[in-house]
Amino acid sequence: MGTVNWGKLYEQGRCKAIGIPWSQEEREAIYLLKIPVEYVREGVLTLKAFEAAKEIKIETKKELMVEAKALGIKFTPEVMIDTLKAEIEAKKEAIRTEKAEKAKVKAKEKAEAKAEKDKEAAKVKSEKAKAKKVVKKVVKKKK
Question: Are residues 81 and 138 in the same domain?
Answer without folding.
Answer: yes
